[in-house]
Amino acid sequence: MTQADPQWLDRMYNNRALVPDFALHFAKWVADSALARASLSCHLDVSYGPHPGDALDIFAPEQSAAGGAPVVVFIHGGYWRSLDKSDHSFVANSWVAQGACVVVPNYALCPAVTVSDIALQMVRALAWVWRHIAKYGGDPERITVVGHSAGGHLAAMLLACDWKIHASDLPVRLVRNALSISGLFELGSIRQTPFLQQSLHLTPAEVKKCSPAWMPSPGLQRGRGHLYSVVGGDESAEFLRHNALIRSAWGPQVVPVCEELAGLNHFSILGALTQPGHRLHQLAGELLFA
């Protein structure tokens, strides 16, 4: 973890300040998401657990492949404290067009819960997907998790998850592969960032428990898949560091792709995910359809 002064950390992690037109990106996500829900076959606010916030949206392919469609679970960002699944329905368009089943879960937001609470909530969501997605045309043996920002952190946590601890019926490789976009892999620096402290309430124990880069590499555990990690080339030095850190920590066998994508910032990179022909769209397809 980089030791730095609080003002520098705020500059490094406050993406809305770093990208002055961030609100335009958010507005486009919302508008495109409304169109996706109106045009795609979808099941909205499906419950995956006992709490009111345990809900997900499913976007089914028009035609189910033999044995079921590959499944992509997309986890949104927002520093574990903002945004909503409804803001991100737009990610389903290109994948559904290619024959995939897309799941977009919600999670409770800090400070009402902790980051570790959210990680366990996503474990419940993925367990539900594995048990039930076949009813919606998906193949439970072909689940890929894609996450942006805080969602990228959660994607890595889910790839490393020991599923048998949570339920004996769950397979070791419930998550086949994962793609982290602008992910956060150690929370020590986040804990020291002033504008995030009041909402996240990170403790040293929480930081240790929820930092993927400080966990044993999933490659040391039998049957785990690959993590692709990418970041926008125009993002802050800290986000670039996080991207390199996870490959250093987990090794190139587990993280064979670790790239900085030129010309993209923390918000435009999510738009690139949905653009056929873009490198990021290609990488997602490699994991999903392999």
Fold blueprint:
Elements: H1 6-13, H2 15-18, H3 22-39, E1 42-47, E2 55-59, E3 69-75, H4 92-97, E4 101-105, H5 115-132, E5 138-148, H6 150-159, H7 163-166, E6 177-181, H8 188-191, H9 194-200, H10 204-209, E7 227-232, H11 237-250, E8 257-261, H12 268-273, H13 279-289
Parallel strand pairs: 3-4, 3-5, 5-6, 6-7, 7-8
Antiparallel strand pairs: 1-2, 2-4
Structure description:
This protein has 290 residues and is of the alpha/beta class. The chain is 40% helix and 17% strand. The chain is built from 13 helices and 8 strands. It has helices spanning 6-13, 15-18, 22-39, 92-97, 115-132, 150-159, 163-166, 188-191, 194-200, 204-209, 237-250, 268-273, 279-289; strands at 42-47, 55-59, 69-75, 101-105, 138-148, 177-181, 227-232, 257-261. An 8-stranded mixed beta sheet has the order 1-2-4-3-5-6-7-8, with helices on both faces. The chain is globular and about 55 Å long.
Radius of gyration: 18 Å
**What count of helical segments does DSSP give?**
13
Mean pLDDT: 95
Strand count, sense and barrel status of the largest sheet are: 8 strands, mixed
Which geometry do the CA atoms define? globular
Beta-strand content: 15-25%
Q: Termini separation (Å)?
A: 34 Å
> How do the strands line up in the largest sheet?
1-2-4-3-5-6-7-8
Order of helices and strands: HHHEEEHEHEHHEHHHEHEHH
Helix fraction bin: 40-55%
Number of strands: 8
Any low-confidence stretches, pLDDT <50, length ≥5?
Answer: none
What structural class results from the helix and strand content?
A: alpha/beta
